Amino acid sequence: MNVITDKLQVEDNKWIGTRTVRPDGADKVTGRAAYAADNTMPGMIWGKVLRSPHAHARILSIDTSKAEALPGVKAVVTAKDIVEFPLDKSVMLGIQDMRWMCRNVMAREKALFHGHPVAAVAAINEEVAAAACALIEVQYEPLPHVIEIEDAIRPDAPILHDFLKFQDKPSNISATMTAKLGDVEAGFAQADVVIERTFRTRPVHQGYIEPQACTVSYAADGRATIWSSSQGQFMVRAMTSLLTGVPQSHIKAIPAEIGGGFGAKTIIYLEPLALILSKKSGRPVKMVMSRDEVMRATGPTSGSFSTVKIGAKKDGTIVAAQGTFYIQAGCLPGGPLRGPVGCAFAPYDIPHVLSVGYEVVSNRSKVAAYRAPGAPLGAYAAECVLDEIAEKLGMDRLEIRLKNSAKPGTKAAYGATFGKVTFEETIEAVQNHEHTKAPLDRNPRPGVKRGRGVASGFWYNAGGESSAQLNISEDGNVLVTTGHPDVGGSRASIANVTAELLGIDHGRVSVQIGDTASIGFSNLTGGSRVTFASAMVVTQSAEKVIGQLKERAAKIWKIDPEAVTWENGEARPAGPNAGQFPPLSLKELAAKANEMGGPIGAGVQLNTTGADPGFATHVVDVEVDVDLGIVRVLRYTAAQDVGRALHPSYVEGQIQGGVVQGIGWALSEEYLYDKQGRLDNAGFLDYRMPVCSDVPMIEPLMLEIPNPKHPQGVRGVGEAPIVPPLAAIANAVYDALGTRFYSLPMSPPKILEGLDAAG
Amino acid sequence: MPKVHVTASINGEPAEFLCDPDKSMLEVLRNTLGLTGTKEGCGTGDCGACSITVDGRLVCACLMLAVEAEGTEIGTIEGMAQGEALHPLQRKFLEMAALQCGICTPGVLIAARALLEKNPDPTETEVRFGLAGNLCRCTGYDKIVRAVLEAAAEMRETVA
């Protein structure tokens, strides 16, 4: 369903808001689209990574001589080939600290998790590369390891890094963050009801279907070309440069089609290894991770251990909220603290807030971003406690959210003062929806109970650097180049915007993603920023092109450019005073371009701003089989302020996809480790992501409330949808069973255990 | 061990190749024959990204030895469209935005075609179970299921 609350020239739009076929569509349904692992080159050889068999061990020595002597082996790389960033000096690339990245791509002093790379080999084929890895002799001194947060913060825990200090003592707490508003103690003193609960979640993997892969060709002139799948070719170039010492200007990073990222492909693993292997061997090197390597050694998101306390007056006014969030960073610092700390209470107008986060290292793979990084952890705890407060006060669960909703001018604990806030609209959309009003058959058959839950969520959204180039071809068609890998249909939105602004048929617009040598710097595809930011730079580029077209027409007509307008893909005299001339179409102007001043095209590079936050409210019905412990989602409705849906299908797709990832997080996905600190379920059989038969249709309620700071009213949409599902489903399971679960996933064994304990 | 000579039909055309006896059909399709439309998501038969048909039967190419292709009729995504004419499933996937990143799409399309050949008039539940072996992490499956149901309806009309 599409609810349009503001008629932002909607009737006039021919392409914006329509469900056009995406520009890259035909390639993707016929198998032609080239993803990273599909690339091949003449003379190409294969790289493989040797990984630590220990969860925690000092590396005493590495002897690669036998591997290098094996026929067919062309190069070997170890940590000594990677640029070292000393521990005492932070070097940041975006939000990544290169001290940790250089130790993540290759273990240096110690192997920090089972699967940590310790060496890599390039050989004539994969079999020889694997045989060579087995010939590398590594001497380890195994050390005690620690996996879980509670164990890692005990005073006697094995310490991963001597250089990390917390309260002046060596510690596995690698960072803290605080968001504070008012005086939380004074706030709780005013409360009539206070509820405090502790919650646990397990690390979950982004679960992209395409494993990381790259091909790197280092040529004799010292220049390298990288083909890889990432959420940012400029990040690939910069990080590979920093880790290999090859200057950025000597690296061209070509973005392959990306087979899913969800945040995880905002950092790299293979590219620097492949570059050094290519440099040493003089051959192009291809590296592809197996699914086992992806699960074991690339970042999942953090597991968490949180306590949330909320105090409210009898009338439902929330007076104070406090959260303490421990989140996993994996083996090196750099977890998503700002997710839970900043987002947990952000939808609400609460005078007294104290939100404190602790990031904890342990012997797991370093975490990577995952869709609204960290925010679902905080929302899970906060939205469950809010549900309990509502129950205790006898209030409707949506009404308490509406009553406390943030408003224009509300100050959030994380620091922002909100301008336009569209949270209430999402609650009201759910309140008024047929789903919420539909009766629920609570006991449809013996042994089956049903319940309904709601929850809300917040995500910051982001702007940042984007570049676009818009060129008119000689035949009068349009080629748009942007710098953002397209993870979910952003090219489709850009094609709609371009066709709309130029007033031409959608079929005449091509959209491509430029490599680092052919388009200006563009920041990562992440933070729900790409459609927002690239539509902005494409709009400005199109305006420049239209200006050029008007000038050309003016030249032909020998009138003032001011006296020319651009309408429906044609230049026309602005009025009777401008003169009487037949319109000049884009095709006609393009054909005359070279004789009338040269090629037509324009580009814009911008650090975009104005990406206001996103709000979402979800309602879900679940069914619990009390004998088997299986929770099924029966119905799901997700309301969100999407600003302006440039291409509604791909906006819906973001909401539907985010919700189903949230369902997996809530019900079935978790990282399980054995006693030796080895991941026990490093594959899709045992790491259980939702399959098609696990889920129902997901109904997205797109609230189109234009963002006034964007030319088309766009607001980021990709991340907010994964924030509410964890709590919404937990609240629904409680509603069904009358037993509350404080830990995820609510998998069958846990449900059965909980029901047994409740008697 | 010497390589084995295998003769098969791929997408209706005669094909022959040499392969090691331990190579999977997926490796041969992608690395020997250059048919990279068939994707590897897991290599263990859990994700369905490498779905192909062998004599009309749906198979994970990663779980099949290439030597088993001898004398068979193999169908891959590259053979689904007839020139510029997309298969109704491919067309509906585009019209209904049933893909985002697209990496699972070839496998989903092959599995959906196999399902509709067996059951031209599936219910939503039958589509969901028919595609339960194909992981998609982007779409939440909603638009995929709708596109398969629509394509099935259109294909039934064409036949009738």
UniProtKB/TrEMBL annotation, chain A:
It holds the Pfam family MoCoBD_1. The keyword Oxidoreductase applies. Residues 30-144 form the Aldehyde oxidase/xanthine dehydrogenase a/b hammerhead domain. Keywords: Molybdenum, Oxidoreductase. It comes from the Bacteria. InterPro entries: Ald_Oxase/Xan_DH_a/b, Ald_Oxase/Xan_DH_a/b_sf, Ald_Oxase/xanthine_DH-like, AldOxase/xan_DH_MoCoBD1, AldOxase/xan_DH_MoCoBD2, AldOxase/xan_DH_Mopterin-bd_sf. This is Oxidoreductase. It comes from Paracraurococcus ruber. The lineage of its organism: Bacteria, Pseudomonadati, Pseudomonadota, Alphaproteobacteria, Acetobacterales.
From TrEMBL, chain B:
The keyword Protease does not apply. InterPro entries: 2Fe-2S-bd, 2Fe-2S-bd_dom_sf, 2Fe-2S_ferredoxin-like_sf, 2Fe-2S_ferredoxin-type, 2Fe2S_fd_BS, Beta-grasp_dom_sf, Diverse_Oxidoreductases. SUPFAM superfamilies: 2Fe-2S ferredoxin-like, CO dehydrogenase ISP C-domain like. Keywords: 2Fe-2S, Iron, Iron-sulfur, Metal-binding, Oxidoreductase. Residues 4-80 form the 2Fe-2S ferredoxin-type domain. It comes from the Bacteria. The keyword Metal-binding applies. CDD domains: fer2. This is Ferredoxin.
